[in-house]
Design a protein that fits this description.
Elements lengths: L1 H19 L2 E11 L4 E4 L2 E5 L2 E4 L4 E8 L6 E7 L9 H7 L3 E11 L8 H15 L1
Parallel strand pairs: 1-7
Antiparallel strand pairs: 1-4, 2-3, 2-5, 5-6
């Protein structure tokens, strides 16, 4: 009987410790000006801006943003690791009670597509025609 009581106590203590352990939640939000642009991270569509996505790793990300009437933006950004992600602090962030939220935010300005005026196109066509003759 005593053996079962000790096993139950150990099991209860283990479950309590696991329930109190912390976790790290990582979120990246991408804003654009103007909003409602389609956002891709590493060639995977994550939604329209402002877009928030969970991530598992820090490092380099390829970013592509498209919106009709605007130039497509191709760039890359780096997510730097916070202090609580380095050894030995990462151990405490994972086992201490509570939740650590690491929120990162990137903002991008989109440029309007440049349109060539009709007269400019006609003049360019005349020049090309003259070069061909």
């Amino acid at each position: 009987m005593r053996k079962y009581a000790l096993s139950a106590l150990v099991l209860t203590l283990s479950a309590s410790i696991m329930a109190l352990t912390g976790c790290v939640e990582r979120k990246l939000t991408i804003n654009t000006n103007p909003q409602d642009a389609v956002v891709f991270l590493n060639d995977e569509e994550i939604g329209t801006s402002p877009a928030t996505v969970s991530f598992n790793w820090y490092g380099e990300y390829n970013v592509r943003i498209t919106k009709q009437g605007y130039e497509t933006l191709h760039t890359h950004r780096k997510l730097n690791r916070p202090l609580h992600d380095y050894f030995p602090f990462d151990l405490f962030a994972q086992i201490l009670p509570g939740r650590t939220v690491d929120s990162c935010e990137w903002s991008f300005d989109l440029e309007l597509k440049g349109e060539t005026p009709r007269e400019g196109l006609i003049e360019s066509a005349r020049q090309l025609k003259g070069q061909l003759q």
